[in-house]
Structure formats: C-alpha cells, structure tokens
Amino acid sequence: MAINALTWESDFFSQRIGKVDLTQLHRLTPTECQAWDLVQAKIPSGDYQTLDTLSSLGFVLAEGESQLEMAVESSTRQPGIRIARPTHIPLLRELASKMFTESRFRAPWFEQSLTEQFYAQWIENAVLGTFDHQCLLSLDDRGTIAGFISLREADSTAHIGLLGVARSHRGAGVGSQLLLAAADWTRTKGLTQLHIATQLSNVAALRLYLRHGARLTTTSYWLYRKSNDSI
C-alpha cells in the first residue's frame, strides 16, 4: 500500500483520509486513491518529478508550506505571558475557530463549520496537554486574551502548533511577544531549537519569524486528491 491512514483527521472529519508514502510512490494507482475520501501528499517544493507524477494521478495544490528553525539560547522570560488554564478554553475556542480559515483544512476539501471546530479543538487539546503540550497566553492590561501560542516537544525539538493574535490586538507587537515566549519555553525545556511551519502565502508571519532570527530551512507543497476527482 502506498497510502497510510491519518487516524485523527479521519475520525474528526468523518472521512477516510490518508497520506501518500512517498517511498512507495511508484506503487500508487488511481484505484488505490479512489478507496479514500481524501488523499494528501507533502512533497519538497523542488521535487518536480514527484509533483508531475502526483498531478498525473489527479492531485492538485492545496497549500505551500515553509519550515523554519529558531535558536533560543539567549531567550528571556516575557512579561504578560501566562499558561492557559481550562477556564480559558471557551474563549480560546471562539478565537481559534475564526483565525485559521485560510489553512489547508479549508473548502473545498472540508466544510467551513468543521474547519472552525477543528482549530477550536486543537487549541483546547493544547490547553489540556493532549496534543500540543502547552498553550501560552498574552494578556493585556485588563487581563483580556490578546493572543495565544501552542507548543509541543517532539524529537528533542520544540514545535509551534498554533499562533494567533486577536483582531483587536493586531499591530501591537503581540506576535513578537508570543514568539519570544515560545523561545523561552523551549530553552527552559533544555532544548536549543524551535521549529516553525507556516503557509508560504503568510508573508506577515514569515517576516515576523525572520525578524527574530529564524532561518528558513525547507519549503514544501501539500497536494490533495478527493475520491471523486477524475484524471
């Protein structure tokens, strides 16, 4: 088999969702693809041969992704940052559900209402430590949530899950504050690198990360194929 099941996504969206094992790409057929509601593939942006092969099988571009790394040795604790608690979950769910509507989990691949629920559940899981391991909050002078960032530790590296700034607080440096707080969280865990992934089209986020010393490491494409797509 050239397709592996994505269990969490399949369960959440009530679809049979899989991801192409690129090492088995030579075995992938339209018949195998048709057995899934949605098949995803993530490929290096410079791998044109694989891009052509997947395109010939009916895959289309869903999103470009950039991956960055940020060193954290000189990080410092940021004022106004708190650990999210279960009491924050209702407001965080509301904020997250409206912030990430242009991600790869968008229409026509997924219903908007389910996409909103997906990100709401993601941030709730981060608060509870059941997916990402921690959610940090930026609070303004009135104690209102100005933004949030979720983090997890994997393969001896820290990874940013979601970073969001409330619309009412954009342009006030909240994104920088959260990124620096994430760097400090990484340092306190005894790690030296913070891994970041964001959309290629999210120029504002890329500028933020690069401004704070992040290094662009790779770029990739996400390609999707629905079971009713023809070739």
UniProtKB/TrEMBL annotation:
Record keywords: Acyltransferase, ANK repeat, Transferase
Family matches, as PROSITE patterns: ANK_REP_REGION (PS50297), ANK_REPEAT (PS50088), GNAT (PS51186)
GO molecular function, one term: acyltransferase activity
One Pfam family hit: Acetyltransf_1
Record EC number: 2.3.1.210
This protein's record includes keyword Oxidoreductase: no
Domain N-acetyltransferase, chain residue ranges per copy: 79-231
Enzyme class of the recorded protein, top EC level: transferase
ANK repeat ranges per the UniProt record: 189-221
UniProt protein name: dTDP-4-amino-4,6-dideoxy-D-galactose acyltransferase
Organism: Rosenbergiella australiborealis
